[in-house]
Design brief:
Four copies of one chain form a homotetramer. Chain A is of the alpha+beta class and 361 residues long. Chain A has helices at residues 2-15, 154-190, 199-221, 235-245, 248-260, 262-265, 272-275, 281-288, 294-309, 323-333, 336-347; strands at residues 20-23, 46-51, 54-65, 72-75, 90-95, 101-105, 130-141, 145-148, 224-225, 231-232. The model of chain A has no long low-confidence stretch (mean pLDDT 96). The structure holds flavin-adenine dinucleotide (4 copies). One flavin-adenine dinucleotide (FAD) sits between chains D (22-25, 28, 31-32, 63-65, 130, 315, 318-322, 324-325) and B (191, 193, 197, 258-259, 261-263, 265-266, 268).
Chain lengths: 361, 361, 361, 361
């Protein structure tokens, strides 16, 4: 009755307006080995006890985004498992303050500046955090458990999750990209230059944004309905998008820094405190002023820094899974032999085109 | 009553199963000047006489695809015109054998091989042609004229056409890409190698294919209905796609050649005639044979050549308009100032961020 | 007698083992205007008084690298100037503690961590700083002045400097790149994976390193001797290299993050302080351990963060001038018309191929 | 006394001004197997008989460049061989008309046009050809044999050859690139546009040219003298250059086509014969004329076609070995563990960083 339990929790979550962090990534330990072969069995989150009224879990979920702002945490298995790993096939949801759960936030670039006065962190209306969740024998009541041992379905869970994530992330990254475009134009003008000077670079940035956005739209548009009523995005398109999401924003960042100048590249600007210094601050202001007032230029530069080198850098490379994991999915989802048949037809090739036999050693 | 005329022709065309070539591109002459300022007024197709029962047109439409296979030719204005160019604002449809129209086919790479025996052109089930259409005072009856002087609407025509084209071409180019993937796998195996040797390159090719396909889907999915009932694709997405269509297939081609080996790169293989030579042909066959039989390898190599250097190379760079024309549309369609506002909000910038005043000379 | 003065200072500097920071970049103000047309004449460093025994200068040099570690500061003009800007044509060298000079260090990513205990800044044997140098009516004695008003030679100064810089920086960036390769391999192994898993990415990184290194070597090897005995690097090669230096390290960074995993991408790891916490620190250690011990993995991750998002990111984009400045030099140094002649010869073109006449407005 | 024989032949070749083609590439057959394990032992060139006065060889050398223009052919082993393949470790030089040698030229794109009148092949002062050399029991006299069975030295031969080739090819490809730049400017002007319209693209092309040129220079400059007196290029730089040589010209080609317009992209222009047609030729001429006379534009378009899709396309991808062969050499030549040590030092890592143990199956 997992389906029933899940529906109940969903209704409850909606009625209480629950915000939820999604936790898949385990500590994992040695990446070359499955959970059950790790030196320490806790390196992936696992069921250590099954009771009548629920289960007890131990392990860690790492780099989980948005925990600070969430009410509850939804845990899912971190990989596709075989029978030996069936204790790791576990899904459940818990409130953040449950007993036995320790939450440790990770660092992010320039994080300490958030404790400083002024705009060296330009942004106080947003930002993201990631947490390590240490589950030290946490008890989860039955009605909040949605998988427990059904290892065969882990692959499904992962694929349903990643194809949705890798479609949706395209729009998210595009929005950040729009912001980078805006910040770049601000810097151009603050430097005294027109948007026209940089159209070639801005258009390149915009194409990058449209690409991750568009690929996400396409993956959704060509998705299929699951019997349960859920919409599942197209795997090939969603995973191709993941590769773009892990690549294009780096080019967009580079172009933002190119437009901004050295002041934005490494945040190469005195601190807010220095700028406000009663003795020499006015001199700094005088020299930071350019096409627009000093404050706009300084804030713009800090925004570019924040977006490209600071705490505003999202985990677009690995969030939602590594690009090589996406490439693997593309490999699995592409109908290679169909393309071979197509090419045979156009090329007038009649013979079979089999894989070479495995060489004997 | 253009709309009525067009509907009538459409009904007629459907009932007769008419195939149509679309002709926009004029000879154009000097690209820096509008039609009316060219040395020769005929360099863009124009109305030279308006009669009661129709119009007389003169000029040339160049590089028109599919004329050989078409029944009729649909001419549209080649650019967005101002009042001075209103004679050039003309749209109509004519049968291919109309009086005064000379059709000259253009060349394509390795075209003469199509007259040879054998598989040096691997493909006899497809191929494209382009034509120069020389209109030497062609009379077009009234009911086949859909625009004549309404220069203000040329921009609309162009945009409706290009946003549809630049969405649709993504799927077209993706299909060619699938073929290139298939041809590459054939060559790998014909060389004795497994598909596994080249997965990284093949996945890159596949991502390219998915990208132009997906962007086209997205442009369609996010299109809007025109009051006439037509569906108009999203301009930003369609034009971003045009830039991909003009770029990614070149990388796909390069990878196909990389996988195929020198034999595919420049078609570096003796001719069919040499291979079939009674004296030394058997020796060539002996040496062309590798992982698969000589014929599969030779045909596969010719297919790669055909697709990447031969008559199978489509005009993905300029067909449907040049990439810089698409970039211009992106420039015009992007809400730059909205991104500035977004960045101001996130960066805590209160001041105005205007364009710098034009410098006085 | 500038040459004599310079020689004397050089001998002195060598005998005293003087380390020197090079300061070209002015505050500049509005980038669209030359120094003399700025709202505030001090926005570029200028001579405000010429005395018998020396000169008095005012203005700011910004983002100057290595000032903290330098004994003296060598100032050069920041651009190529016309007659109206001749007060800005000034070159001199001063000790760091000269009267009237205020030095304000700029920020860099994650800078506050340098004040923390532990390895969240992994590195205490290196690092770079940049400073704003505020010259508030600084007197420079005659024998330390090497240019004063000779505006015609500013272009030479800039070109001699940039072609040397843009050659040499290639090796510098390559060395950082080698470090990134090393850090990536450490992370692979710390994650339990073999170097073999990532050879394609590592080889790409290495090619990037070899490219900036090689182009720098080539620019030097094909340089020419200046009559003074100095060696001047080849401008086309050095400036082409600058474009690589501003591009390739971004790809190298991206690949390092791809190999390292999320832990390296955004430094997504609890702080040293948390890891050392007596209560839950041991749990974090348990979960950070993977292929190698927790400390190697944590330090490796911080190293990747430091190199790609932290204070170890050098200013390779703008340091030594912006890429567009380099592109401008390439434009100026390339013999375009010679390539036209070459193409005419090979293409059998006999006619002249002139630029089109400027269109009249 | 191979060294003595080689010296003698070199003196003879110089005195007679002998031009030589270099033949390494064998037919190879199945790429996954060494010569001695092929179905047919002749798939790599081999010694079938050793006599007192010389040797008899059988097999084929494929895709050999410049045979048509050469006096003699210098054969070298095509790979690094083990003992089992020692019959394939053979090097010698023969005149082109030696008994038992059949030479079959390969095709190249649009080759038949060379037999046509006019400029559809724009170029009659150059061009390259490749040949299949079929050695059917060819006798080579002793004094022209320089290796026969010394399989251990094959790797050296290959490496000496490839590092020189992969350095030198950079300059060759750069020269072709200069030509592409020139042809692009001609097309811009022939279309009525100024070089200024395309500076961003032309500069990108020029950087590509400078890169392969510069890397070649660097590989030579940092080469080392072999005890024999030969100069051996730096392997890392030369092989990195091979990867550029196999990549950058494709971008340069794409940009040339982008600048030229559809007329250059696929050679989308009526044939010379059509242009000269007494009936409608004058109309074509009228419509081909644009910024410059029709002939310059037509010849320019054919030149772009020739360079990017025609017989002027050199084998830069596979000539001198495939890019993956170069990547393998980079892998072998890079001091990976040295970069690890470097990173350990900077990152303060004290522990060993070994490769993970091979997993047991
Ligand atoms: C900012 C940020 C936010 C995140 N938010 C969340 C979140 O909200 N919820 C959540 O569940 N997770 C989250 N993650 C974690 C993310 O899902 C993981 O980073 C991602 O799945 C990759 O795992 P990893 O970081 O452990 O990398 P690793 O698994 O260590 O991978 C590192 C590299 O090694 C490769 N690799 C790994 N194993 C193998 C193997 N066996 N063979 C070959 N190659 C291999 C990978 O492809 C990758 O290139 C976040 C990450 C970041 C950086
Ligand atoms: C294979 C193929 C099939 C085609 N099929 C069709 C078809 O079926 N129907 C049809 O109507 N057309 C067709 N075309 C033509 C195609 O639409 C044109 O090639 C395209 O619009 C570009 O025009 P052009 O070739 O005249 O290039 P040009 O206009 O000469 O452009 C060349 C370059 O100059 C730039 N440029 C041009 N003018 C300016 C300016 N004023 N300022 C700055 N830059 C400028 C362009 O951006 C481009 O980079 C086809 C083309 C090809 C190659
Ligand atoms: C880490 C770091 C270290 C540095 N170290 C030193 C040092 O040791 N010594 C030193 O002298 N300098 C140093 N610099 C400064 C460096 O030389 C400058 O950053 C560089 O010259 C660019 O100047 P800018 O930053 O003022 O950028 P800007 O001049 O503001 O340029 C920003 C962008 O605008 C473009 N642009 C500028 N003006 C125009 C125009 N008129 N028309 C069109 N486009 C234009 C530029 O090409 C660039 O893309 C350093 C910079 C950094 C980031
Ligand atoms: C225009 C041109 C001119 C040439 N001129 C000359 C010349 O003058 N003299 C001369 O000797 N040669 C010449 N060559 C041949 C050239 O050296 C070869 O093309 C090159 O060495 C690659 O060999 P191949 O073409 O047989 O490709 P293949 O060996 O078939 O390789 C095809 C692809 O498979 C990969 N591959 C091959 N084997 C393996 C394997 N075992 N495992 C994994 N991957 C593998 C390759 O890396 C490549 O990506 C020329 C080639 C061309 C195209």
């Amino acid at each position: 009755d997992y389906h029933e339990r899940l529906k109940n929790w969903l209704l409850y979550a909606q009625s209480q307006d629950i915000t939820c962090a999604g936790a898949l990534t385990d500590a994992k330990g040695n990446r070359a080995l499955p959970p059950s072969m790790q030196k320490d069995p806790d390196l992936n989150l696992r069921v250590v006890e099954v009771r009548d009224d629920g289960i007890v879990v131990r392990g860690a979920k790492c780099m989980i985004c948005g925990v600070a702002a969430a009410n509850e945490i939804f845990c899912l298995p971190g990989g596709a498992y075989k029978e030996a790993d069936k204790d790791y096939a576990v899904a459940f949801v818990v409130p953040k303050d449950i007993e036995g759960l320790t939450i440790v936030e990770t660092r992010r670039p320039s994080d300490m500046r958030e404790y400083e006065e002024g705009f060296d962190i330009p942004n106080d209306i947003g930002g993201i955090t990631q947490a390590y969740l240490l589950f030290n024998d946490v008890f989860v009541p039955k009605e909040r458990v949605f998988m427990c041992g059904e290892y065969k379905y882990c692959l499904n869970v992962i694929q349903y999750f990643t194809s949705t994530y890798r479609a949706a992330i395209g729009g998210c990254v595009a929005g950040q990209g729009d912001l980078k475009v805006g910040a770049s134009i601000i810097m151009a003008r603050a430097n005294g230059l027109s948007i026209r000077t940089f159209y070639d670079k801005l258009i390149r940035m915009q194409i990058n944004n449209e690409t991750t956005f568009g690929m996400g739209v396409a993956a959704s548009a060509l998705g299929k309905e699951h019997p349960s009523g859920c919409w599942l995005c197209d795997s090939l398109l969603a995973n191709s998008n993941k590769v773009h999401v892990a690549t294009l924003p780096y080019e967009t960042n580079r172009l933002a820094q190119e437009i901004a100048g050295g002041i934005g590249e490494t945040g190469c600007l005195p601190s807010y405190k220095d700028i406000m210094d009663p003795k020499y601050g006015s001199l700094i202001k005088k020299y930071v002023e350019a096409g627009l007032d000093w404050e706009t230029r300084a804030r713009g530069a800090r925004l570019v820094e924040w977006l490209t080198l600071g705490p505003g850098v999202p985990g677009c490379m690995h969030g939602g899974g590594s690009p090589d994991a996406a490439r693997l999915m593309i490999r699995v989802s592409t109908p290679w032999e169909k393309w071979v048949e197509l090419a045979k037809r156009v090329g007038g090739i009649k013979a079979d085109v089999p894989e070479p036999p495995k060489p004997k050693k």
